[in-house]
Design goal:
- It is a single chain.
- This protein is mainly beta.
- The chain has a domain at 169-383: Methylamine Dehydrogenase, Chain H (7 Propeller), CATH 2.130.10.30.
- It has four helices and 34 strands.
- The protein has a five-stranded mixed β-sheet with strand order 8-7-6-5-33. Strands 9-10-11-12-13 form a five-stranded antiparallel β-sheet, with no helix packed on it. A four-stranded antiparallel β-sheet has the order 4-3-34-32, with no helix packed on it.
- A hairpin with a 2-residue loop joins strand 28 and strand 29 (397-402).
- The two termini are 25 Å apart.
Length: 457
């Protein structure tokens, strides 16, 4: 065990981070840059010296193995948004030579998991906000990630809840539970930031999980997929009927007892997803109204909002998993938004389909599809891109990393997710901030701030 500072109570204090040491400390003090300050523009610009390889290495060295954040990392006020990636201080020191194995984010709260099972977290203290306090930002803090002597090996985050996977194959949850997203058999308006086992999984050995906005997915070693949480499709848009309320079936399982509940649009106990019998699932992703799962043979299955179906259907809901025939046997990664899907095939190409969801947007314009705002109900390749190795979605903003370790982004950028506020980008572009660095890890989760980790090499 390392000598990193820990808090009493181990992982139960995951979200109870210490406040800043001084009440006058600005959240600006939590961010620093190893590059040059351009005072005339009020921005940070990375300065690379190309006169010699040695000088270039000296310039880049402080930027390698670092976490960078941007967006609404201080607040959602337009005057406090961060448009240029800033280094989170102290991360290399807290990693202490260990490698990073996972990164998750939840509304400005970030968790970084080390390979020895310890964690580093920083950012917004969400537990305090849930208790009624004002926003509180905290410096990186390290501690143990063990629950009842089980080492946490992966973590994922939704809008307000977190799932923790242990090496023993057990799944724990913490956060808010308004829609049964914690998987504890009930819903409650009282948040719980102490991790407890997700019930209803029996003796299954869990190897992966995905936290949606108000729902969750988890899959087992032998490829079975479970879902729970919010089961309604809330509001969706169709050309024929404009905005309407969606039906009950987003979780792809039926339960007569739950259907008779007063709150029949929630399912607080995990149930196996129907329609995937005999199919070995190795990865899944979920968002507000769409879920997707990848089989071990590369097939992709989607369900939920009808825009996920991969064809122009008049049905409002794809109740059970539907195979995307156009990409059969070719999918290695997938990102899902509120009403769209982006899939990464085995050749490194990105494919997208669906439309926009937010009511304050024009549903005819689908910027997250990466084709200039053009909608498509069938999988269509995003053109003019190099080969990619991963893709992720945060709301209606998308990020992808190519085989050179470069970061690409597109979609909505209301809080500077794409380094400019109040605009939408219909086509992917490569950010220039990390041109001389390799992006090793991209944070996954929800919120208006974002984080990446650069390779130490």
């Amino acid at each position: 065990m390392s000598n990193l500072p820990t808090k009493e109570g181990s992982f139960s204090n995951l979200l109870s981070l210490p406040p800043t040491t001084s009440s006058t400390t600005s959240s600006l003090d939590l961010l620093e840059s190893s590059s040059e300050q351009n005072r005339s523009r009020g921005a940070i610009s990375f300065r690379i010296n190309y006169e010699s390889r040695h000088q270039e290495w000296m310039e880049l060295a402080p930027l390698r193995g670092q976490c960078f954040v941007w967006g609404a990392v201080r607040s959602q006020s337009p005057q406090e948004l961060v448009f240029v990636p800033q280094i989170v201080p102290g991360i290399p020191e807290l990693l202490q030579g260990h490698s990073m194995v996972d990164m998750a984010m939840m509304n400005g709260f970030f968790i970084v998991l080390r390979d020895d099972g310890e964690y580093v977290n920083f950012g917004l203290n969400y537990s305090k906000i849930a208790e009624g306090d004002n926003a509180c930002y905290c410096l990186p803090h390290a501690g143990r990630s063990e629950i009842h002597d089980e080492k946490v090996i992966a973590t994922v985050a939704g809008i307000t809840h977190i799932l923790l996977l242990t090496g023993a194959g057990h799944l724990f949850s913490l956060g808010t539970n308004d829609r049964g997203e914690l998987g504890r058999g009930f819903a409650s308006d009282v948040p719980d930031f102490s991790p407890h086992r997700v019930i209803g999984l029996g003796h299954e050995f869990m190897i992966g999980a995905s936290a949606g906005q108000l729902n969750s997915l988890a899959w087992t070693k032998d490829g079975k997929l479970f879902s729970w949480g919010d089961a309604s499709l809330v509001r969706m848009w169709t050309p024929e009927t404009d905005w309407i309320d969606g039906p009950f079936d987003h979780l792809a399982h039926t339960d007569e007892v739950e259907a008779e509940r007063e709150n029949r649009d929630i399912a607080p106990t995990p149930k196996r997803v129907q329609g995937l019998e005999g199919i070995h699932i190795v990865k899944a992703e979920t968002n507000l109204t769409i879920s997707a799962a990848i089989a071990n043979n590369g097939d992709l299955y989607t369900w939920g909002d009808h825009h996920c179906a991969g064809y122009d259907t008049k049905n409002l809901n794809v109740q059970y998993p539907h195979k995307i025939e156009a990409l059969a046997g070719r999918v290695q990664d997938v990102a899902v938004g509120p009403s769209f899907v982006v899939a990464l095939d085995t050749d490194g190409h990105l494919w997208s389909w669906g439309c926009m969801f937010q009511k304050n947007h024009n549903p005819v314009t689908a910027y997250p599809l990466g084709r200039g705002g053009e909608r498509s109900f069938v999988p269509t390749r995003i053109p003019d891109l190099p080969k990619m190795k991963r893709v992720t979605c945060t709301g209606t903003t998308l990020f992808a990393v190519d085989h050179e370790g470069q970061l690409w982004c597109w979609g909505d950028s209301p809080h500077g997710q794409c380094f400019t506020a109040g605009v939408s980008y219909g086509r992917p572009f490569k950010t220039h901030y990390f041109q001389e660095l390799n992006i090793e890890m991209v944070s996954k989760g929800y919120g208006s701030s974002f984080c990446v980790y650069t390779s130490p090499q």
